[in-house]
Amino acid sequence: MLCSYKLWVQASYPPHLTVLNQNSNIPIPKTKTQFQRKSLDGRFDDIDDDADGSGLRKFALPSHVKSITSTSNPFVKHCLKLKSSSSYRHSHASALVVGTTPIREIYRYKESSQEKTVIDCLLLLENAEIPEGLDTHSCHVVRVGSMVMKKLSGVQSAESIEAIALMRFPTSFLNLTVDQNKSDSQSWFPSTHRILVLDGIQDGIFLLPGCCDPFNEKALRASRGASFQLPIVSGSWYHLQTLKDTFNMKMLAGHPDIDGKLKKPFSLSQEFVHSVAHVPSCLVLGSEGRGLSEKSQLKCELVSIPMTGKFESLNVSVAGGIFLFMLQPKN
Questions:
Q1: How far is CA 269 from CA 4, 92, 104, 240, 325, in A?
Q2: Three-state secondary structure call for residue 227
Q3: Can you give the pTM of this predicted structure?
Q4: Residue 58: what pLDDT?
Q5: What does the DSSP assignment read for 250-279?
Q6: How far apart are CA 270 and CA 327, in angstroms?
Q7: Helix 74-84 and helix 146-153: axis angle, to 10°?
Q8: 5: helix, strand or coil
Q9: Distance CA 283, CA 327 (A)
C-alpha cells in the first residue's frame, strides 16, 4: 500500500496557537506589511506599513468599492494570484474560498467553536443573495459581474458559483519552519490523541516538507474547508521527533507486505489495534508514487493492511481511511 505520508499522534494541547502564515515547502522571507491605496489615476499603490509587526503583506480593498465588473481590476488580479501562488497566499495569510457551501460550513464551524471567522471580503454574483447564515456577518460585500466570477472561480458557468470569500488563515495554522518561537511541542495542538501527519504529499494535522498547501484551491474544494477547521502544524522531521519524544509516541507507518523487505510489517489486525489502543501514536503514509521515504521506514514500525489476491497497494485515501477507522480508540 503505497500512499502519501500521514502521521497520527496523541497528546494534549494548549489553548491557543499563533498564526503562522507561511508555506513549509517554500521558505518565504518576512516582508513589510503592504497596504494597497487607490491613487488619483484609479490604480492601487503599495504602501509599506509594518505597524502591527506581523511581517505579513496585506491588500486592502477600499471600503467604498461596492462592485467590480472588470477582470483587469487590481483586486481581481490579487485574488487570482492568491489562487495560483502558494508563496503569495502565505505571504498575505489569506486564501480564496470558492462556493457558498464551503464558505457556510467554515463559518458555521467557527461559530460553533466560538472562534472568530475573518472574511475580509465576500464577492457575490450580481443579484445573488447573501448566503443564509452569513447575512448577519459583518464583512465587506462586493458585487461582481459574471465574467469576473467566472475568472475567479475557474468554472465555465458563473451561475453555478454565487459567492467567493477572501478569508484570513485560521489561528490554528502554525508553521514551525518560520516561527522559531514555537519550539514547545506541547503548544502545537489542543489535543494529541490522534494527529495525522502528511509527509511528501482528527485532532490535528502535521505537515512534513513536500506536502500540498492545505489552502490551495483544490485542497480547499476537496476538503470542503476542513483546512479552516482542523489545527494544522507545518514542520520538519526535527519537529516531529520533538513531538514524538515529548509524548513518548509510537511511530507507525503504512506499508505493503512485500517479500524481501528488511522489516516485516505487522498486520493491521484487531489484535494489533488493541495493542496500540491506549498508546499515543503517529501514523505515516507514503506517497502513492514513491511510497515511504527511507527515513520513515527506519524510524517507524511498519504496518500493512491484509488483502486477498495479489494486489500490493491501495489508493492513499482508501488506505488512510482504513487505518484511521481501525486505529480509533473505540475499535
A1: 22, 46, 39, 26, 12
A2: helix
A3: 0.66
A4: 66
A5: EEEEE----TT-SSPPEE--HHHHHHTTTS
A6: 9
A7: 20
A8: strand
A9: 9
Which residues, in sequence order, are bridge partners of residue 297? none
Residue 19 has pLDDT above 90, yes or no: no
**Could you tell me which residue, 10 or 181, shows the higher pLDDT?**
181
Tens digits of residue pLDDT in 88-111:
998 898 999 998 888 888 888 777
The residue whose grid cell reads 443579484 is 127
Query: What CA–CA distance (Å, rounded) separates 144 from 9?
Result: 44
3-state class of 196 per DSSP?
A: strand
Domains by residue range for the chain, with CATH: 34-168 (3.30.1330.30), 173-326 (3.40.1280.10)
The residues that bridge with 144 in the sheet, in sequence order, are 68, 125
Tell me if 148 sits within 8 A of 71, measured CB to CB. Answer: yes
If you compute the radius of gyration of the chain from its CA atoms, what whole number of angstroms results? 22
* Residue 221 C-beta-side C-alpha neighbours within 13 Å: 12
**134 compared with 213, residue with greater pLDDT:** 213
